[in-house]
């Protein structure tokens, strides 16, 4: 009975796959590459402008802050969701995507109130990124201090 079910399940999966259109992997990768490149080029242009007027570390901080603001602002307007639908990971990977992952849940759950809605759900997606990013930074710092003196 188990073999028959397994065989039926495999046959069903093959049949179901025949009705699914093939995924346009190359086209999706190209769109992600282009949009991600445009976002990063915009950040580089902003950094170039700011680094001519500010010290390098301040220019880095200002560029990052401005890109996070732009990502959050475009998410609030509903534009960044369309960019994300079009470009996929090309829009999610830059720092603007991080801003989107914080602002989107906050906007979605604001009807539930600030404590149980916005505050509780805001870091639902971005929380693990912050935790693992902090742990990775701690690990690299420990390795640098104690191993690679």
Features:
single chain; 149 residues; mainly alpha; 8 helices; 83% helix; extended
Structure summarized in a few sentences:
This protein is an all-alpha fold and 149 residues long. It has helices at 2-19, 25-51, 56-77, 79-87, 89-92, 95-108, 114-121, 126-146.
Walk me through the structure.
The protein has 149 residues and is mainly alpha-helical. The protein has one domain. Helix content is 83%, strand content 0%. It contains eight helices and no strands. The protein has helices at residues 2-19, 25-51, 56-77, 79-87, 89-92, 95-108, 114-121, 126-146. It is extended, with a radius of gyration of 22 Å. The termini are far apart.
